[in-house]
Specification:
Length: 369
């Protein structure tokens, strides 16, 4: 991932793939033109790198020139095309091949056609390395296309974001969700997970997604997913991961502009951890860390028995039940600890001490992410 000005971009097309696409364009154009000496016209600024690589590969004599147009502001195509440097030579009777880095809305191309309208060239061929079919709303024929790409803003290989990125040999795509901090929070019963989640949420402006709460919300409000989940529960079956993931997806989408999420109660299995990775990846994001509160069993038992005196929760009143719940927690989370540790994303945090002390320790981990 790279950062240009205020935005994050992720690797999209490698130097090698670009090279292959350029070579392919060269081959078909050289094939079609035979012994004709073409004039390649690059559209500055973006096409400088393409033109350079292209003509070095071109197997026969050719001429090269440039015109300079500007249509982009920041990450958006604008209506206004400015002609900064026009044609400086007579191209009457010549075969002209426009070399564009990218064709987006086609407005620049329209201006190019206007420029050549009265030039009496033999033929005007359009070649573009990148083409965004979803954005293109003109009728001009594109004779040679290196690669079709989705309608997302890219940088690199001549293309810039506010001046930066033209020098990059690879192409990067704008991340749709910007830099988020996403945590998976773990802790045995009685570790103070809920309390800490509340503090972290405030401190880092994160959205706390408790799977239990999400389930209850969907079922109570009889959403389609809630009804689906309930149909499994009513049969005494486990709700399939896909249903849970879809519910989490909805929560993530509801908060698309968030600084990040704290996942609580999910994942519980390797399969779920992978599904969560996939979900975050589809949002151009990632799980940054699994943070687990570590508390000695005897301390947990003492805390929970204490809580049982006032909470009235039956499962907080019996030491044997409590010890079983703790054991079950470790049995279940061991796999996940391994899963995240393998990616260097596991962080155990000492959960014994005052609430403030523990928050401090958690913050120290998060601040380093
Ligand atoms: P169009 O006029 O077809 O909308 O856009 C063409 C020009 O806009 C290109 O020559 C390029 O300068 C700029 N452009 C279009 N799409 C992108 C993009 O994804 N990234 C960058 N950096 N520039 C783009
Ligand atoms: Mg351009």
């Amino acid at each position: 991932m790279i950062k240009l000005h205020d935005l994050y971009f992720k690797p999209f097309i490698s130097e090698q793939e670009i090279d292959t696409a350029v070579q392919k364009m060269v081959d078909s154009i050289a094939d079609d033109l035979g012994d004709e000496v073409p004039v390649f016209v690059g559209i500055l600024n973006g096409s400088f790198m393409l033109v350079s690589d292209f003509v070095k590969k071109y197997p026969k004599p050719c001429e090269v020139t440039f015109i300079k147009l500007a249509s982009y502001e920041g990450v958006k195509s604008t209506e206004d095309i400015q002609r900064l440097i026009g044609l400086t030579q007579d191209l009457t009777g010549r075969t002209v091949v426009i070399l564009e880095d990218i064709i987006d809305s086609g407005k620049t191309l329209e201006e190019v056609h206007r420029i050549f309208e009265n030039e009496n060239v033999k033929q005007l061929l359009i070649a573009t390395l990148f083409y965004k079919p979803e954005a293109y709303d003109k009728d001009f024929k594109l004779h040679y296309v290196g690669m079709e790409i989705p309608n997302k803003f890219i940088v690199g290989y001549g293309l810039d974001y506010d001046g930066l990125g033209r020098d990059l040999p690879d192409v990067y795509q704008l991340k749709t969700t910007q830099h988020m901090t996403n945590l998976v929070l773990f802790g045995p019963p009685g570790a103070g997970k809920g309390t800490q989640a509340n503090y972290l949420k405030e401190k880092y402006d994160l959205i706390h997604i408790s799977t239990g709460d999400v389930f209850r919300f969907n079922i109570k409000n009889e959403t389609a997913l809630g009804m689906l989940a309930k149909s499994y529960m009513d049969k005494g079956e486990l709700v399939p991961d896909q249903v849970t993931i879809e519910m989490l997806n909805k929560e993530v989408e509801k908060n698309a502009g968030a600084n990040g999420f704290i996942f609580d109660g999910f994942p519980r299995t390797n399969g779920q951890a992978k599904a969560l990775d996939k979900l975050m990846d589809s949002k151009d994001s990632q799980i940054n860390a699994m943070v687990a509160l570590e508390v000695d069993d005897n301390v947990l038992v003492k805390r929970l028995l204490e809580r049982g005196k006032t909470s009235g929760r039956a499962d907080d009143a019996d030491e044997k039940i409590i010890r079983n719940r703790i054991k079950e927690y470790y049995n279940k989370t061991a796999i996940l600890k391994d899963y995240y540790a393998a990616q260097d994303k596991y962080f155990g945090v000492d959960g014994v001490g005052s609430i403030e002390d523990i928050t401090e320790r958690l913050s120290a981990v998060i601040d380093k992410l």
